[in-house]
Amino acid sequence: MRARNVVETWFVALALGAAPGCMVVDAGPLERLRTAADAGMPDAPLVLEDVPTDVPPPEAPADECGDPEAFLLIGSGTYDIDTTGLNPDFSILGMATGGNDAFYQFDGVSGQFWHFHLAALSPGRNPVLYVVQSSGGVCSSSPVAVRNACTMSEGDEHFAFVPPTTGRYYLGIDDGNAGGGRYRLQVIRPMCGNGVQEHGEPCDEDPMMGRCDSMCRILLADLDATGTTSVPPGRHNDTATEAMIVQVAAGDTLDVRGTVPAGDCYPDVFAVDLPAGARIRATARNATSTACVAEMGVSYGLELQNAAGSVIATGGNDGMGCFGIDQMLTNPGRYFVWLSATGDPSRPANYTLRFEHTP
Ligand SMILES: [Ca+2]
Ligand SMILES: [Ca+2]
Ligand SMILES: [Ca+2]
Ligand SMILES: [Ca+2]
Q1: Ligand 4 centroid to 215 CA: how many Å?
Q2: What helix, strand, coil percent values describe the chain, rounded to 5?
Q3: Is the pLDDT of residue 306 over 80?
Q4: pLDDT for the residue numbered 343
Q5: H or E segment at 159?
Q6: What is the pLDDT of residues 70-91, one digit of tens each?
Q7: Residue 42 carries which DSSP code?
Q8: 83 CA distance to ligand 2 middle (Å)
Q9: 49 confidence band (pLDDT: 50, 70, 90)
Q10: How many A from CA of 200 to the centre of ligand 4?
């Protein structure tokens, strides 16, 4: 609509012979004149395609990663991007990113919280979203953060990003399928502690309530002494940054009930703080935790990662028919359990993930 407004303003100024410095603020008389001249027939509405679009909007992304002229993202904003005229000149190590790519830059400050969300507006796309650093105008093909959770589909890609170091970063909008398309990028800068749960924030409430910590991460604890708790629905919990903190003391068991929505590509990520020498078991069970079976047509995936993001165990049969992870830990620290559910995309998968912490 921006282009249409530009054209109409130009038309009004020309028709009225506007002198320099004269501002036309009321197009009403002109509209009535135009309508009269057309014998009462209103003009056909302009559509975007009628307007020359060879001048990109100022917030258009750059074609090349590392371009020092790339638009600088500062605060929250929404950007409509068209990569059809751009080139597929960048790729991420070990990932299919053959589509045309586009780039923004931003100054990341260590510890700040960003959330990026990319949706395809054109059909047949497979968006891929990543953050890379550049040196001397050359971007590293090893991303600082990367997301292609929906690898075979048009599903949105999004992630929380906390810069590990302060510096200039490039945000890449790419695609697993060749060619370009139209996308909508949302950049969100939530403020933890303002009492408002913003897009990208798992929660934002008083830590004294015991459901949300001071970093706006969801706390999962046995608050009602039933041995069971539930994942609040509809929250961001699919990266280590957004992981839900499972509070299970040595010798205790906690059943965490959750749901992977129908067709959802994203994992549910849990964090557990464990001392040296602890043993952690995480087993996937049915919705009522009565049996070690997934919902019909669904299969679970499990990974145990350390704080550096290295996979130290993957799910397997525990010998008693349960799919799970059972790991002794030498080093103390925060560990992450990634649960994914694949299968019938037409209905949600309800699960219980049982955490057992043995000293
Ligand atoms: Ca590419
Ligand atoms: Ca490009
Ligand atoms: Ca994708
Ligand atoms: Ca907030």
Answers
A1: 10
A2: 10, 35, 55
A3: yes
A4: 79
A5: strand 157-161
A6: 999 999 999 999 999 999 999 9
A7: P
A8: 8
A9: low
A10: 9
Q: Which ligand is nearest to the CA of 200?
A: 4
Q: How much distance in Å is there from the Cα of 216 to the middle of ligand 4?
A: 8
Residues with beta carbon < 5 A to ion ligand 1? 88, 97, 101, 174
Q: Which of 33, 16, 34 is nearest to 25 (CA)?
A: 16
- Counting ligands in written order, the one closest to the CA of 159 is 3
Asked if the model's pLDDT at residue 150 lies above 80, the reply is: yes
Ligand nearest to the CA of 203: 4
Among residues 132, 130, 162, the alpha carbon closest in space to that of 149 is found at: 130
Location of structure tokens 């890379």: 132
**Domains of the chain from N-terminus onward:** 2-50 (no CATH), 72-188 (2.60.120.380), 207-358 (2.60.120.380)
Cα four-point dihedral sign 300, 306, 309, 313? negative
Q: Is the pLDDT of residue 106 over 90?
A: yes
DSSP β-ladder status, 77-82 and 298-305: unpaired
CA of 65 from ligand 2 middle (Å) equals 7
Ligand 4 geometric centre to CA of 239 (Å): 18
Q: Which amino acid is at 32?
A: R
pLDDT in tens, 172-199: 999 999 999 999 999 999 999 999 999 9
Distance between Cα 133 and ligand 1 center (Å): 16
Q: What is the pTM of this model?
A: 0.78
Specify whether the CB–CB gap between 126 and 150 falls below 8 A: yes
CA 63 to ligand 2 center in whole angstroms? 4
Ligand closest to the CA atom of residue 216: 4
For ligand 2, a single-atom ion, the residues with CB < 5 A are: 63, 86-87, 89, 101
DSSP 8-41: HHHHHHHHTTPPTT------HHHHHHHHHHTTTP
Mean pLDDT of 142-160: 91
